[in-house]
Amino acid sequence: MVGFKAIANAAFAATVLSAPTQQEKRQAPEGVPDYVLKYAPIVYLHSQDPYLPSDFQTHLTHTTPKVGFNAVSGPSPLTLDNLSQLGSDVYLTSNDDVTTNPSWIKGVRPDSSGKTNDAITSAIIVNDKGSGNVDAFYFYFYTYNWGGLVAGLKDLNFGNHVGDWEHNMIRFSNGVPQHVWYSQHANGQAFQYKVTEKHTDNLRPIAYSANGSHAQYAIGGTHDHTIPNLNLPFGVLEDYTERGILYDPLLAAYYYKFDAAANSFTPYQEGTPTSYLDFAGRWGDEEYPTSDKRQVKIFGQAKFSSGPTGPRDKQLNRVNVCPDNGKECILRGILVPRRVEDDEVVREADEVA
Ligand SMILES: *[C@@H]1O[C@H](CO)[C@@H](O)[C@H](O)[C@H]1NC(C)=O
Ligand SMILES: *[C@@H]1O[C@H](CO)[C@@H](O)[C@H](O)[C@H]1NC(C)=O
Questions:
Q1: Among 83, 164, 201, 242, which is most exposed with the fewest C-beta within 10 angstroms?
Q2: Which pLDDT score is estimated for 6?
Q3: Is 81 in the pocket of ligand 2 (CB under 6 A)?
Q4: Which Pfam families match (predicted)?
């Protein structure tokens, strides 16, 4: 009996030792607060979305820094370690005509575990504000944003651009998730963590990524895609989301601490590139002039717009869960789709920050 027990104990110890910890499974470096991983959003991409999460460095490899559509000198090769040597006026401009759909703009399809293999497609940035208040930002990068069709008409396709940074932000209080921000075009929506739809572990909130635009929504289905200052006479632009392809950003991320006072990023793991986060220019082509045969402009809306700035411009030290943009920050207490007409409606379950 003694012998059996010893063997059983040894087998038990071996199982415990060889089982990967949650941290190992997620490949997160040491020091990242456990709750930042435990409650990290899990993303559902649309099954028809041709433009999947993209590797940061691959994007640099296929673009040229340009100002006024002319190449400018800069570090060569351009890497995630030296990108910030470029000025804020720079547009990382595609080397290929994006209307030909070169394969690199389509990103990487996550495998069955949700991992984008051999591709770093996410940056997770933790802003510890002290006294147990922590904002964790989960950024997702896509090389291409397809803007969708107004009223489903193929000639009314606006807002395509190279480079697309989307994010969720979870506000924690003493390690407990309070609210979740979902970025959507120029703005987004905030929900109380407790009402968000959860992954199979009952912990991780689900973010639904819209087909092509990658706007993040708390529920699946159809959402209005509001274009600021645009009142089209013929219907709205819609975002389509569904439980399509599972994407787990934790499996392909770099992790950083953000120091708001110094406006600086420190990686949790030595050797992780950081310079790209300090780049103040645009991650895609400048809006093509109407003399460019690819461009179409109707009602002031361009078919191809300029690429966005990076994570540093997403108000990483915001006061409210919503970025400060002059609008009321409604912390939704029930799950609702985005609708232009009830964007400012406060329901009983909601809180206003
Ligand atoms: C998804 O986007 C692709 C192209 O970007 C388009 O061809 C397809 O029709 C879209 N599907 C839906 C449901 O919007
Ligand atoms: C850019 O980064 C690469 C490696 O990351 C390096 O080889 C190259 O020298 C850098 N260029 C400059 C100008 O710093």
A1: 201
A2: 45
A3: yes
A4: Vps62
